[in-house]
Specification:
2 domains, four-stranded antiparallel beta sheet, elongated
Length: 186
């Protein structure tokens, strides 16, 4: 008889064979995602291993040479990632061609809005085109600091700055609000 209960490992539905994933009794209470089943259990052999904290061992009945479950603690919090920052827009950053302004105007977006959101235009190497292309540049700021840029060509080729932080566009626009409704137009 396996010692799952003694080790505080919950085996769902009274199963006795196969392999399952369940909650780890060692790290579940310390995790942000308490619904993640990170403990893999082999019900036939009694072997178990947590893919998050490293808790592992065997729930087979104790024998003379039985050892306590092995526990290899890993840090529960990951290191804060180091992001690359994009180059600031060249020139004044507010000059856009008449063609680009007309394109935005056809979508109900004024030149004042483009300036307020610091949307720029310029040449950028685009991998889909394997060369330089004229792009609209949507600059992602937080606290007035440029953290990322999305580049878009006229024929809908897109790219973001590689290794830069991913964040919602115009995040500063909701600063100081108590409630936000996020939508996406079709």
């Amino acid at each position: 008889m396996m010692r799952w209960h003694e080790l505080h490992i919950e085996i769902p539905y009274g199963r006795t064979s196969g392999q399952i994933k369940t909650y780890c009794p060692e790290c579940r209470d310390n995790r942000k995602n308490k619904r993640d089943k990170s403990l893999s259990c082999d019900l036939a052999t009694g072997m178990f291993n947590c893919h998050y904290c490293g808790y592992s061992g065997c729930a087979a009945p104790k024998q003379e040479n039985w050892q306590k479950p092995f526990y290899n603690p890993r840090p529960l919090s990951a290191k804060k990632p180091e992001y690359k920052k994009p180059k600031p827009p060249s020139g004044t950053g507010q000059q856009m061609s008449a063609k680009a302004l007309s394109w935005f105007k056809g979508r109900g977006i004024s030149e004042e809005t483009l300036k307020a959101l610091k949307v720029t235009e310029g040449l950028e190497w685009m991998p889909q085109k394997e060369g330089q292309a004229n792009t609209i540049q949507f600059n992602y700021y937080r606290g007035g600091e440029l953290l990322n840029t999305k580049f878009r060509t006229g024929d809908k080729c897109f790219k973001l700055v590689s290794g830069a932080e991913l964040l919602p566009y115009n995040i500063d626009g909701i600063k100081g609000t108590k409630e936000v409704i996020i939508t996406r137009a079709k």
